[in-house]
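USER:
Make up one protein:

ASSISTANT:
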Amino acid sequence: MIIKTSILPSKQEFAKIKAPHEVYREAICIFAATGFFLDGDTYWKDEVCLLSAHDHSFDENDLLIESKPNFHWHYTPRNISFDDALEEYKNLLTTIIQEQIGDHPVILPLSGGLDSRSQALILKDLNNHVHAYSYSFPGGYPEHKISKQIASVCDFTFDAFEIPKSYLWNCIDVLAQLNGCYSEFTHSRQMGVLEELKEMKGVFSLGHWGDVLFDRGAPEGTKEEDVTKLLLKKMLKPGGLEFAEALWESWNLEGEFKPYLVSRIEKSLAKIKIENISARIRAFKTSQWAHRWTTTNLCIFESVHPITMPYYDDRMCEFICTIPEEYLADRRLQIAHLKKDDELANITWHEHKPFNINNFHYNKSPYNIPYRIVNKLKREINSAIGNPYIQRNFELQFLGAENDIQLKKYLNDPAFLQFIPKDIVDDFYNKFKNVNTVFYSTPVSILLTFSLWHKHYYTK
């Protein structure tokens, strides 16, 4: 039997290999540091996640015996004008969206960024009914107001949701079963409105990974000797290296963690035969954390409605390989496309708020100073009257007395403490509470994920 995986699969598939059924502690340390597994790693030595863009062969016992690439990332820029590249991009995005949605009604998650807005620009000219939605945090920046403007310009129906405090504890076991604990739980905001999503009709059109494909892969001027350091910086979560090193030492693993991680990155990077550094890093990111991180929580959407993903389409990945880097850098193609619609272009771009797609180049001193001053004052006043500014999901799920009770219930589970030593759990929980809440929120979130994995999936 052969299973063929696409360049960017929309779901992860797993297979057994001939190996001892043992916990893969080195791989788990990488997850602790970065928030995702590398290559085909899983929690177990005898189980792998099928690599993207490969043909996988199995024996008569359904054991994976060989995986061969069916696509190689490359950088083969064509001699093409920017205007021609823009026209090709627009036509390709239109074709893919039309083919994916057919005549179904469309459910469009909208943000204040460029990817979903680009989809909206295509969808507004099609005949499908489109229902858009967005969410924001209570007390946080009202990103849903940007989304509502986009929906209004495109004549879409629209819902605005507020992510409820403490939603995680009511659905944490369902989430663990959906994503297999392959992503930490504070990234899954859609779980907070899952019941509302169930009431909608149609297929999702999701804009994941457009922001990586249509931007530079590395800062301008990046040198060859800096590539691994750059990737390491991008991959490591706040507190992640410290957390992984603590686990590595407690499990008495051979050598040291950081050199092990570096060697794994360099080994995977060496398989990408692209001289252009920016294109090579984009290919690495797409084959690694698009597949092993971004894809993980797509199953949440798919649990309620079918999903379509224009930027995950093989044709989009192949197109990217042929476009000059200077056209992809700084979102040039997407921006030029959106500027063809004055109303959409004049709506705030969240990343550059309060500026829009036409004037975001003013998001620098001194032009943005008045907004920054006013915004800071608003946040300080709201905080003083008991309405703190919320910008991260963990603040709704981990902070406060009731959340703390739930969090400690999982972190202090006696069976779990046989897997992760209690002194490590206590150390990172105390640092989260008393040293730096933001910096140590990810290690605590990953500890919670490990606890749920141990509860649902751990077997001797």
Summary: The longest strand covers residues 130-136. The longest helix spans residues 82-101. The mean pLDDT is 94.
